[in-house]
Amino acid sequence: MKRIGVFTSGGDAPGMNAALRAVVRTASGMGVEVVGIRRGYAGMIDGEFVPLGPRDVANIIQRGGTILLTARSKDFMTEAGRATAARNLKEAGIEGLVAIGGDGTFRGAERLIEEHRIPVVGVPGTIDNDLYGTDYTIGFDTAVNTALDAIDRIRDTAASHERVFFIEVMGRYAGFIALEVGIAGGAEVVALPEVSISPEEIARTISASLEKGKRSSIIVVAEGAYPGGAEALFRAVRELSGFEARVTVLGHIQRGGSPTAKDRVLASRLGAVATRTLVGGTSGVMVGEVEGEVTLTPLYEAVTKKKEIDIDLYELARVLSG
Ligand code: ADP
């Protein structure tokens, strides 16, 4: 391959820039040109291509978000949209793609491979950590640390005012962020989409905590753990028990920020391997890290197989909340 394209797509995640830098510099070291595609699949359809050399990715390893910008594209969900994208890529002499994004991005990549024979290798960039084939996705560690920092601050207030706080963290379908910050933040209850927990159980836990002499509690709730999120869950608990609490929704604060060292290293490693894999002639796979080793997983497995939460960790959260 003489020229490859790289793009970021779907939700932004800290470390996407570090992955981009690794792609550009690895390719350059192999004598391969890199074209950056702005705004994900939307920019692919609109032909927003920029040549990227090693100097163009200087000073971005520490920056959150993505300098290539990201977007969601309805047009790319249509065959006609994808045909335009493929034509643009071919006209620009782009022979293969490194796609940095989440499961939607990889579903789109699969279509490009099948319909237009354009080779693609995926790099898992999403704060949700919900991709099969990698222990951690790029951005997850940063998001966890950001949420944890917020929870630590809220705990100060909870303790000072002897209050219960319900804190909603991101995770509509997956509770990875909630579980990790729940343990690290010493939450009394962790509510995840994967494990059902009733308002009755939470009310019981809060009253048991009060009996044990605890004057404040932190309940970490993943967005998708209860219909209507933390606010609705709190109302249901109050209805049953009369407990008062404050609700804080952390929201988009969890998405941005300078990536942690762990995310930068993961992004650098996976970006480099993805580039070597693509240029070496392999397509249709996602690079990941499993038990410290770099692995390749077929894209269809990465998006269709479910990564399970660690149930032992969930049990640990329950035991340690005592
Ligand atoms: P993420 O990659 O973070 O999961 P999205 O789910 O928003 O983000 O997906 C990013 C983009 O990928 C979508 O806006 C769309 O253009 C494209 N995409 C997602 N699913 C498909 C699909 N099934 N077929 C074609 N393109 C898709």
Structure description:
- The protein has 322 residues and is α/β, with parallel strands linked by helices.
- The protein has two domains: 3-139 and 259-304, Rossmann fold, CATH 3.40.50; 140-255, Phosphofructokinase domain (Rossmann fold).
- It contains eleven helices and eleven strands.
- Helix 4 (103-116) links the parallel strand 4 and strand 5.
- Helix 1 runs parallel beside helix 9, helix 5 crosses helix 6 (176-184) and helix 7 (199-211) crosses helix 8 (229-241).
- The N and C termini lie far apart (58 Å).
- The model has no long low-confidence stretch (mean pLDDT 97).
- Bound molecules: adenosine-5'-diphosphate.
- Adenosine-5'-diphosphate (ADP) binds at residues 9-11, 41, 72-73, 76-77, 101-105, 107-108, 111, 126.
